[in-house]
Amino acid sequence: MKLPGLFIDGVWQHGSHPLMVINPSNEQLLAEVHGGDGAAVDRATAAAWAAFGAWSGSSGAERAKVLRTIAEGVEQRRERLVFLQASNNGKPQAEAQMDVDDVIATFRYYAELADGLDAGQDSAVALPSDDFVARLRREPCGVVGLIVPWNFPMVTTAWKLAPALAAGCCVVLKPSEVTPLAELELAGIIAEAGLPEGVFNLVCGTGIAVGVPLAADPRIAKISFTGSNAVGVQVMQRAAETIKGVSLELGGKSSLLVLAEADLELAVELACLGGFFNAGQMCSATSRVLVAEALYPDFIARLKTRTEMIRVGEPFTGEHEMGPLVNALQYQRVQGHIAAGLESGARLLCGGARPLDLPCGYFISPTVFTDVPLDSALWRQEIFGPVLCVRPVANEAEAVALANDSEFGLVASVISNDLVAAERVANALQAGLVWINAPQVIFPQTAWGGYKQSSIGRELGPWGLSAFQEIKHVVRAV
Ligand code: NAD
């Protein structure tokens, strides 16, 4: 299947750079996508600016209507999107369904916020002088570049695209070259949603061919990037050359804290979800598990049993709880982390290798390490695979100190039936989102992003919208 990888100014086009899209469950070719390069970015940016005048001048209500139509389109093509997401990424069908639901909820949420923009525009500003009057306007920041990774492709796109369109920005989207298929389908839905030509443009391609020229283009007002810290640094450096705004959603090394009063069964279930959902390929993976000393032996025994029960395999059987890693590179990276962990002296509790019954595909069994040295890469670096490190802690203070001892600060989970203690610990954690006794549920209303090197800015909620707005005050002498 050969697919056009460019949607520019309302027209599908074949770019000059073929991308081979692989099914990670069987290593077979899924599609050949004809992506672009700097010339395509140039055309897409020009088309976006040509559309900007009219789109930025449209009312919030008009933009809300388009966003709702996109949400409806996603709902109607749900099955197809689930199929593409699961085939291309390898995630179990049930997880892909959650992704599609998240996309729908995000477009609907930002439709609501877009609706509210008209009433809030030109609001009066109270001044300490009767000689002047002032009003506040929120205006779209211009043409924006959206660069997304492969782990939650459509979701990450929706978190950027919906608020950007709601704000009145025009967009050049660069999906991951590893997982462009769901975004191509989404682009088809957007193309039918009544958006004026040029408002939404998509350029598939590699980071070098498309991401670099997009981040460097002086006409792009802002880059919203989700991906690795190494690339985040490069994006920021290029953006700095033209003083471009950046929003960055980067890596994590988050903790799940099992406090002394925890329900052990719940703790084990949430530890598995936090470590193995999406095969652990989550910036928010709670890959450090810190367990109150008194519970530790029992917790470890139960975690081993539960982890070994996880059924690993391809997405469409309905039986499998965990799929493969996304590609050969990620598979090798995670194997490398496991090998380095063993060399560092960490003890392998379970997993650590390819499941014996899966000779093909990028599968790694869910893996648990104990006795992990605190200065090892396994403890300190993001693994981005199904690998948990578990450690006993003497008390709450030690748990918080270990959780906060990281260059990242994206999320955390706290498990305890003592809700006063759980809330106290949540307040002490350096993380943008903390769950208590809950799986990693994400609502469009709550912000996404973290402390320290995990993020610059926040997505979702009103913060996700204001990331694409400029503030203007008009002050007039009376
Ligand atoms: P990546 O950084 O390799 O790539 C991300 C995107 O950037 C891709 O579209 C890629 O093509 C593009 N890119 C690559 N080089 C570029 C360059 N020089 N200039 C501009 N763009 C370039 O990340 P990945 O491997 O796709 O995804 C995994 C990473 O993403 C992990 O580190 C993970 O923590 C992070 N992530 C963070 C969040 C979050 O919300 N904080 C969410 C998902 C993933």
Descriptive report:
The protein is an alpha/beta fold and 478 residues long. Helices cover 41% and strands 23% of the residues. An eight-stranded mixed beta sheet has the order 3-2-10-9-8-11-12-22, with helices on both faces. The structure holds nicotinamide-adenine-dinucleotide. Nicotinamide-adenine-dinucleotide (NAD) binds at residues 147-151, 156, 174, 176-177, 206-207, 211-212, 215, 226-228, 231, 234-235, 249-252, 283, 382, 384, 410, 454.
Question: Quick gist of this model?
Answer:
This protein has 15 helices and 23 strands. The protein is α/β, with parallel strands linked by helices.
What's the helix and strand layout?
Elements: E1 2-4, E2 6-8, E3 11-13, E4 17-23, E5 28-35, H1 38-56, H2 60-76, H3 78-89, H4 93-120, E6 123-125, E7 132-140, E8 143-147, H5 153-167, E9 170-174, H6 181-191, E10 200-203, H7 207-216, E11 222-226, H8 229-241, E12 245-249, E13 255-258, H9 264-276, E14 288-292, H10 296-309, H11 328-343, E15 347-350, E16 367-370, H12 377-380, E17 387-393, H13 396-404, E18 408-409, E19 411-415, H14 419-428, E20 433-436, E21 451-452, E22 455-456, H15 461-466, E23 469-477
Parallel strand pairs: 1-5, 8-9, 8-11, 9-10, 11-12, 13-14, 13-19, 14-17, 16-17, 19-20
Antiparallel strand pairs: 2-3, 2-10, 4-5, 6-7, 7-23, 12-22, 15-16, 18-21
Helix pairs in contact: 1-7, 2-4, 2-5, 3-4, 3-6, 4-5, 7-8, 9-10
Bound molecules: nicotinamide-adenine-dinucleotide.
